[in-house]
Amino acid sequence: xxxxxxxxxxxxxxxxxxxxxxxxxxxxxxxxxxxxxxxxxxxxxxxxxxxxxxxxxxxxxxxxxxxxxxxxxxxxxxxxxxxxxxxxxxxxxxxxxxxxxxxxxxxxxxxxxxxxxxxxxxxxxxxxxxxxxxxxxxxxxxxxxxxxxxxxxxxxxxxxxxxxxxxxxxxxxxxxxxxxxxxxxxxxxxxxxxxxxxxxxxxxxxxxxxxxxxxxxxxxxxxxxxxxxxxxxxxxxxxxxxxxxxxxxxxxxxxxxxxxxxxxxxxxxxxxxxxxxxxxxxxxxxxxxxxxxxxxxxxxxxxxxxxxxxxxxxxxxxxxxxxxxxxxxxxxxxxxxxxxxxxxxxxxxxxxxxxxxxxxxxxxxxxxxxxxxxxxxxxxxxxxxxxxxxxxxxxxxxxxxxxxxxxxxxxxxxxxxxxxxxxxxxxxxxxxxxxxxxxxxxxxxxxxxxxxxxxxxxxxxxxxxxxxxxxxx
Length: 473
Ligand SMILES: *Cc1c(COP(=O)(O)O)cnc(C)c1O
What we know:
With 473 residues, the chain is α/β, with parallel strands linked by helices. The chain has helices spanning 15-21, 40-45, 51-59, 69-81, 112-130, 143-152, 171-178, 194-206, 208-214, 224-240, 258-268, 285-292, 316-323, 328-341, 348-357, 365-379, 385-400, 418-425, 452-462, 464-470; strands spanning 3-5, 30-32, 91-95, 98-102, 134-139, 158-165, 185-190, 216-217, 248-253, 273-280, 294-296, 343-345, 358-362, 406-410, 446-448. The protein contains 20 helices and 15 strands.
C-alpha cells in the first residue's frame, strides 16, 4: 500500500515513511492511494472475535510487508494489554437503541491511548530497524501529551518533549504528564497559551536544519497511523450490534476530526454505516460547515470539553479531498483561501457527497451539564463532558431515525474532568485504581519562557538524536 499527499505535490511513500513523517513535505496529509476493502465474510467473522484479532484483520492491509504478521500481532497484544478492560473498548447501553462505546480504559483515560499505544510501538520498531533515533515534539492542551508520554516512555529510539500551557491544563492532565520518571520524557510548561505552543511547534517543523538534526517527528492526529488505528473500534462495535447485517450510526465528539474520519474510513472499507454524526461544543465550525457549506474560522471559546476547543479541524482536509474526487488542485485552492481569509465555501457537489455520510449537531455548556445530570439520573453512569456533548446530539438524531442503533463515542473517563462532573451531578468520579496515587507522586517539569530560541536550546541539549549528530554519528 502506498500513500499520497492530499496536496498532490509530494512523492508517494510507504506506510513506514508516512508513519515517521506525520505531515507530507508539501503541507498535505497522507492518505492511502486506494482504500483497502474488507469482504462481507470478513465483517461477519468479527462477531464474537477479540479486539486484537479484529485489529489485525483491519490494519494489516495498511502496512507494508513489515512488521511480519506474528510480530504485528504481538505488538497489538502488548498495546491493548495496557487497557483495563478485557474487551478493550466495551459497549454500554444507555437507552432504547442508544449505546456508548467506552474508549477510555487505556492508561491515561482518554481515547487517544487507543492509537498512541500502537503508534509508539510501530515507530520504535521502524526506527530500530533503520538504526535511527527520533525526537518527538508535541503541543498539547492536555490529552494528547499525556497519551504520548505514557506510550513512548522508556523507549530507546525516541525522546519526547511535550509543550503544555503553564497553569492552563487540569491537575489530572498535568500530573499525568509530570509524574512520569523516564529519562526520555520531558514535560515543558510553557509560559504562554496552547496556541503559542502550537505556533512554536510549527516553526520548529518549518526549520529544515533543525528538523533533520533532531529527526523531528509528530504524533498529532494528522499522523495517518493514528487515524487508521481508530478505525478498529467502529468494526468491533458494529459487530456487537448486528453489523454488517444492519447499518449502525455513530455520534462522535469532534475536535480535529481524526476520530470521526476513522469512522468514515471504516465505511469506505465496507462497514455499513447509516450516518456519522459530528458532535461539537460551542466551537462549532464543523456543524456550521455541514449546515451552510461555509467553512469559516471564528475565535475559540473555552468550554468544559477543552479537547474539542479548536479553531480549525486539520483532518477535515482528508474528507474534503475525497469529496472533491481527489482533485488536489481544487483542494489546494480551498486551503489557500482558508490561509488568506479564514474561510472557504465547499463546492456544492462536494457538500452533497459529505451530507450523504455525515450529519452534525452542536451542544452548548448548559446542555452538556444537563446531559451529564440526566444520564446519571436515568442510568447511574457518569459521562465526562466530551462524551456528554456526543450523547446529547445522539439523542436528537436518534429521534429522527429510531430504528437504527446509535452509538455515541465516549472519549474520556469522567475522573479526568472531575469538576464538570461534580458540578452537574454532585458526585465525584473516583480515579481508577492504577491512578489512585497520581496526587502523591513527585512532579518533574521545566518552566520555559514563551521564546522559541530558549525552547530550542533546551531541546537540543537533551535530545539524543541531536547529540549523535553533533558527534558525527
Ligand atoms: C482529542 C479528543 C477529542 C477530539 O477528537 P478528534 O479526533 O480531535 O476529533 C474528543 N474528546 C476527547 C476527550 C479528546 O481527548
